[in-house]
Design a protein that fits this description.
Elements lengths: L12 H20 L3 E2 L2 E2 L20 E12 L2 E9 L10 E7 L6 E2 L15 E9 L3 E9 L5 E8 L10 E3 L17 E2 L5 E2 L5 E9 L2 E9 L6 E2 L5 E3 L6 E9 L15 E9 L2 E10 L4 E4 L18 E8 L4 E8 L5 H7 L1 E2 L1 E2 L3 E5 L6 E5 L7 E12 L3 E4 L7 E9 L7 E2 L8 H7 L8 E10 L7 E9 L4 E8 L14 E5 L8 E8 L2 E6 L4 E6 L11 E6 L5 E11 L11
Keywords: Glycosidase, Hydrolase
Family: Belongs to the glycosyl hydrolase 32 family.
GO molecular function, one term: hydrolase activity, hydrolyzing O-glycosyl compounds
Length: 581
């Protein structure tokens, strides 16, 4: 039997049941018209719509930052997040906001999950994670700021496991379950990860910390998930990082794109350890030894541009979860604003979540790949296509017939004169971000810059250029990817930092590809099939809404070919507004 939405009800009964619950719940919210969420009062600030995203997740108003505890439960995806219910700036009192979705794209807001109420979290409920225990029992571990200003780890569980929306949560009577250990400052102990279960049946979890500026993942173990004991040594530590925020630790398959559960440990996986510091999310690939309770990276953090990152633009405090329905691992990240604090107050909101991304190990085993979840394609509308078009030096070609302020564009370039590219001998000695800043979209080399001009005015007085430069290296080509915000806005009061990174592909072996998701003030770009990701926030003064344009350009002295380009207008996602509750 098939529903009007086009899926088989018999084969997808859990999703169908979730949809019925969603419809009934939204109707009850519209009828109740209440304005109290989980004991935390809401405010009614004024706000602007000019730069508000249309298909990225954000609350209706106020400040949002770290994604917390994403998971799938009984037909619904759940996203918790750091939220200030009292304003559009980071607050003295932070809580866990809570929203749910049946497809990761359309969301409705629920009662706040966790609010300060007890001595162990009275000054804020900071970041943490969810772990689903046997019997489909989700537990939350989160950082509380206690009455003495200490960061302590607390436990919460649903009041009603039969409720697929998990609207009410109860705090464990034995909180806190972890307190700052000896040698750790009371404000350097936070953000517990999703736990994993060893072959001995015991649970493990790591907490971010530092001792004497040495960043680390402190390891804890538990037999019952309620009583935790610190392991004598950290799972991993680094002298080059400082404080580790929002750590993550999980396995990835070496054999394909499918994700695996966080507790999987066998010869077919590698492990990823990720830490947030210096305003970026860095990760290492390596091997987890459960006998030694130690992570051994293939390459340590070096404190240079060679360190691997999820994203080379604005993307922080990320969190992954294993989606067992589609056998994939999903990555969320917080994308903060690039305008001023006063702008945020006037808008009435601040912060956006990235589009959820599927993440997996590259076949070469050297890095992770990321790609927007397939569900985003359900929002695609009008399409424009270009094939086999030569872009001579100095060419600028408009992609027309789509809504350029809300668009998903994929373009593939061919390089018929690749052997004529400029020579570049030692890319490892160069910071690619500085290189992109020096070689911006207006400065020509032989092969590049070429790429997209997003959120541009008709006369290009405003433009954000996402582009490539290609060089000849030793026995292979070198691909530089840049996101140039220097001309993104005529406004003087916004950050216009240029971002850049190398893309680990050989242009002799494959074509150069770029996908960009453009959403009013947000641009997420994926180069080389997701090998390099750059997210930016831009605030054009004129290139907004229907006045925005999208172009393909080539400022290199050699020609390039658009092998294929497909662009789709993206419709607005359905994200429930709190005031309807």
């Amino acid at each position: 039997m098939t529903s009007p939405l086009g899926f088989n009800i018999t084969d997808n009964m859990e999703i169908f049941t979730g949809l019925i619950v969603l419809i009934a719940y939204c109707c009850s919210l519209a009828i109740s018209n209440g304005n109290e969420f989980g004991g935390c009062s809401q405010t009614n600030n004024n706000f602007q719509y000019t730069y508000r995203t249309s298909y990225h997740f954000q609350p209706f108003r106020n400040w949002i930052n770290d994604p917390n505890g994403p998971m799938y439960y009984k037909g619904f995806y759940h996203l918790f997040y750091q939220y200030n219910p009292l304003g559009a700036v980071f607050g003295d009192i932070m809580i866990w906001g809570h929203s749910a979705s049946y497809d990761l794209i359309n969301w409705f807001h629920l009662n706040h999950a966790i609010c300060p109420s007890e001595p162990y979290d009275i000054n804020s409920c900071w970041s943490g994670s969810t772990t689903i225990l046997p019997g489909s029992k989700p537990f939350i571990l989160y950082t509380g700021i206690d009455a003495n200003g200490r960061q302590v780890q607390n436990l919460a569980m649903p009041k009603n496991l039969s409720d697929p929306l998990l609207k009410e949560w109860a705090k464990f009577s034995g909180n806190p379950v972890m307190t700052p250990p000896k040698g750790v400052k009371v404000d350097d102990f936070r953000d517990p990860t999703t736990a994993w279960q060893g072959s001995d049946g015991e649970w493990r979890v790591i907490v971010g910390s530092q001792i004497n500026n040495q960043g680390m993942a402190i390891l804890y173990r538990s037999k019952d998930f309620m009583h935790w004991t610190k392991f004598q040594n950290p799972l991993y530590s680094s002298e080059r990082t400082g404080m580790w925020e929002c750590p993550d630790f999980y396995p990835v398959s070496i054999n394909g794109t499918n994700g695996v559960d966080t507790s999987v440990l066998n010869p077919s996986v590698k492990h990823v350890i990720k830490a947030s510091f210096n305003s970026h999310d860095y990760y290492m690939l390596g091997t987890y030894n459960p006998q030694m309770e130690k992570f051994f990276p293939h390459t340590d953090f070096e404190g240079t541009s060679l360190d691997l990152r999820y994203d080379y633009g604005k993307f922080y405090a990320s969190k992954t979860f294993f989606d067992n329905v589609k056998n994939r691992r999903i990555l969320w990240g917080w994308v903060n604003e690039s305008d001023s604090r006063q702008d945020d107050i006037e808008k009435g909101w601040s912060g956006v979540q990235s589009i959820p991304r599927q993440i997996w190990l590259d076949l070469n085993g050297k890095q992770l790949l990321q790609w927007p979840v397939e569900e985003i394609e359900t929002l695609r509308g009008k399409q424009a296509s270009i094939n086999d078009k030569k872009l001579e030096s100095g060419s600028v070609f408009e992609v027309s017939g789509i809504t350029a302020s809300q668009v998903d564009v994929e373009v593939v370039f061919e390089l018929p004169e690749l052997e004529e590219a400029d020579e570049f001998i030692n890319p490892g000695l160069v910071d690619p971000q500085l290189l992109c800043n020096d070689k911006n979209a207006l400065i020509s080399s032989r092969l590049g810059p070429f790429g997209l001009l997003a959120l541009a005015t008709e006369k290009l007085t405003e433009q954000t250029a996402i582009f490539f430069q290609i060089f000849r290296g030793h026995n292979r080509s070198i691909v530089l990817m840049c996101s140039d915000q220097s001309r993104s806005s005529l406004r003087k009061d916004v950050d216009k930092t240029t971002y850049g990174a190398f893309v680990d592909i050989d242009a002799h072996q494959e074509k150069i590809s770029l996908r960009s998701l453009i959403d009013n003030s947000m641009i997420e770009s994926f180069g080389g099939g997701g090998r390099t990701c750059i997210t930016s926030r831009v605030y054009p003064q004129s290139a907004t809404d229907k006045a925005a344009h999208l172009y393909v350009f080539n400022n290199g002295t050699l020609g390039v070919v658009i092998s294929s380009l497909n662009a789709w207008s993206i419709n607005k996602a359905l994200i429930g507004e709190e005031e309807s509750f």
